[in-house]
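Hello again,

I reread your note about wanting to compare the complex against the isolated chains. To keep things tidy I'm splitting this into two emails, and this first one only covers the full assembly. Below are the input lines as submitted, including protein chains and any nucleic acid or small-molecule components. They are followed by the predicted structure of everything together. The single-chain runs will come separately.
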Amino acid sequence: MQTHLNYPVLMTMEQSKRAHLINSVGGFKSVCLIGTADNLGNTNLAIFSSIVHIGANPPLICFIMRPDSVERHTLSNILETGVYTINHINKNIYRQAHQTSARYPKNISEFDAVGLAKEYKNDFKAPFVKESVIQLAINFKERIDLTINNTIMVIGEINQLYFPEDCLCEDGYLDIEKAGTISCTGLDSYHTTQRLQRLNYAKP
Amino acid sequence: MQTHLNYPVLMTMEQSKRAHLINSVGGFKSVCLIGTADNLGNTNLAIFSSIVHIGANPPLICFIMRPDSVERHTLSNILETGVYTINHINKNIYRQAHQTSARYPKNISEFDAVGLAKEYKNDFKAPFVKESVIQLAINFKERIDLTINNTIMVIGEINQLYFPEDCLCEDGYLDIEKAGTISCTGLDSYHTTQRLQRLNYAKP
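Full-complex prediction:
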């Protein structure tokens, strides 16, 4: 049985209820850990579910952040160093990944607090999550302030891409399901996936 | 066995291969049908996999579009009428949904071409997809041109929200898995999901 809610009703909902609902209605989401460090090497790790591809040539990816959230350490580190990592989440680490959303003080690294291992490689200055099997090294490109609700869009370019060799298909498609990457909905629900099908390029 | 590619290698890849790869690396994606009409009532339907929640108060949602794609009919209709619908995709309609990405001429409605039914309700001027069980009526709010790669970010506000009554949880979470909503990866792969767990609000 379908029901509906309209804007005035949505706006009178209790705040946390509306947050759960509106975070659910956009569909399944990418959920990743963003790793950063400040210039002194203090590390930070935060979970984001607003990561979106915005173009392949050059390879650009963005995410949206609230300015007043715990994730602000992520933003200040990105602006300070110009680099960050995006790390896919699998079913072995989703509980730790979720725990990074707790409000730890700036001097506490979420890597240590939640029990995930830092990994540094190929001279990239930001830390990867060792337990993650698909990892992206990103160069910060642009910050766009969304004045409509004071959120911030952060755009970066893929500098390095790490993935399991046997997950890359002949045509360039990367099988992230085979790699064990999971998805999320709302603020707190995590999901594995099951492929229905890959379809051909559509022609009229 | 983990392998890696870096920026110079990515940039020398064959274009369609890079498109498949870079569209895959951001994680699982929301995939929805956006329904529009022009002022004469000519309808358009297009599939998008770049839909992201950007805030709950007010309820805002955005998507990214390439300016040169078939989806340009979507943008011109949105700018003309100020309204559009976002319709979740389930396993009964993902093939038709994918087919809307073919380059149909402006005078052909993808609703008719792919065999999905238009639905109008509550005086909203844009058409919903009848076969979709979660449907959003959106008022256009803002267009942001991303000069970095000439894509366009379209921001809208949720005006009406339709969903199966038994999918709304007490705390406001909408169980879109129970509603049959699916996810996608890359340019052409569709996935059902299986919940691992909902987790509690994280505290240090």
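For quick reference: The first strand of chain A starts at residue 2 and ends at 6.

B.
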